[in-house]
Amino acid sequence: MTGADGSISTGRAARARPDGYTIDLGVMSTHVLNGAFYSPPYDLLNVFVPIAPLERTALIMVARKTLPTTDLRELVAWLRSNPNKASAAVVSVGIRLLARNFQKQTGTQFALVPYRGTAPAMQDLVAGQIDLLFDTPRNSLPLVRAGSITAYAVTGDMRLKVAPDIPTFAEIGMPVMSYSEWVGLFAPVGVPGDIIKKLNEAAVKALADPAVRLRIVEFGAEIFPDDQQTPEALGALRKADAEKWWPIIKELGIRAE
What we know:
alpha+beta, D-Maltodextrin-Binding Protein, domain 2
């Protein structure tokens, strides 16, 4: 996701001919958060027609192995005792939002260090050059299991099936940190309904493939329930996330950097 956190390519997709041949693979950042971070010159919630939600995943808050803490409560206490001495990597608008929201909820202060991608950020985390990172299970769990980094909490409403030993933020008294990144298919507004229906049916069929389902689960993500694999469900999810996160982004005073 490059080019102003994906907002450039998203804008081009929104302006594409609505004939069903241009499909946008959208995520939480490009189709919700960027509307508040970048204030694009179009109505982000109305220039696309939802096709189908594909998958969603919570993020894991991980830290360098050498931090002198063993759980989230100890981590928060250490950060409070050491204001502005820690650093957290930021690789997307979603992670910036989580880091700032975490600071607000815990009363902690630490530097946010922008990175061009997850790979260099994780490399520095393992090397002890930075202290904290919110990351996907796909990237972080192998390193957690190898003992290279420490996992503190997940942002989902429930514990991860692939890592049931990691608690959720809600369990520790921070339900406002509940956050999931999702992936969905969208088309430019104006695509005929019969084409949207055919595209949705193709996506649902692909998601029903056992090999596809297994691969998604192995990555620590989950497929939406059958009754939520509809254009209407994806549209409702996008709207609900905007109603939740746009006011928080405004309250925190976060802008794209």
